[in-house]
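Practice problem. Given the sequence and the SMILES for zinc ion, write out the predicted structure.
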Amino acid sequence: MIKYIAALTIATSLSTSLWAQDYKQIHKDMIVVDGHNDVIISSILDGHDIGYLLKVGHTDIPRLIEGGVDVQVFAVWSDDKRWKIGAFKHANDQIDALEAVVNRNTDKIQIAKSYADIQRIQAAGKIAAVIGIEGGNMIEESVDNLEYLYNRGARYLTLTWNYNLPWVTAAAVEDSKPENEQQGLSKHGVEIIRKMNQLGMMVDLSHASKKTFYDVMKVSKKPVLVSHSNAAALTPHSRNLDDKQLKALKKNKGVVGVNFYSAFLDSTYNSRLNTLYTVQLGVAPSEKMGSTAKYNKLTPENQAKADAPIERLLEHIDYLVEKVGIDHVAIGSDYDGIESAPVGLEDVSKFPVLTKALLERGYSKKDISKIMGLNFLRILKDNEG
Ligand SMILES: [Zn+2]
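Answer key:
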């Protein structure tokens, strides 16, 4: 009997280690695309050199390589309330900063402006860096500025962030208003969408109000991207998409990138964060305190307890796949724009863990490769043509 158990243990550990190699190889063989990362504003502009392994943040080039990331969309983000230098200038400063990183690391990363660029850069074994503009405020209402940013490499524009612009409205502001007060897309907004279609720049509807969402669906001749949002049916939040929106997205042949933020994945995250904070610090957090400030006060052990279980992320993927189909779900991690990601997916080096989890959940290699990258590449190509 003892002999039998020993043999069984050896057999189990052998198959476990083979399995471990397997999923890493499967992940490596796929084209991995992350459609949203905020490292420019949260780390590069603060002077961190992502060419080196950093002890801060979620992202640097060594960790992107470890995570098997082939294409990284770098978000350019500016909040008019915080930066007074002019959002268009601020956007250009951020593209300058990304270009400087790329120029220091030409053997590892290159800027891609097209699907063909991505193929060439990927074949050379480098990371393709794609630019996404997160916030229509950065074009300062000018179609010329939009074209200028496109020419610098921007391949999507998230129409608005968490506040309204004269031509477009945000979910964070408008979704709670009565229907007759909702504005959506203005006439000038329609012109901007048409120009984006013409240029081959993806319209990103993360952060957009519901009215904006449906207005764009009527105007856009190309499939739209929702770069970093989840399912509201599982986690009710204005940043997530409800079933009606998912149905419209499917009809549009668009793509939704699943967001890794614990609060968008798990409805119990915020209360868990408050409890852990109160227990650890002996005092409840003030009403005004943001979730990042609370999270940063926690010990690493308590941070891990606050993070959503990876199961929540898998449930969102299952749900989105069920509602919009396997060809319309992608990854938009939001790393470095969020304080908390699921357990096991703490930074960009951990993407192989997601591949492993999806394999274990019964997804085929083919289906995982669609979610991990091919769907994003398909919509990028659809917008070019
Ligand atoms: Zn965002």
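Check your answer against the key. Residues 1-14 have pLDDT under 50 and may be disordered.
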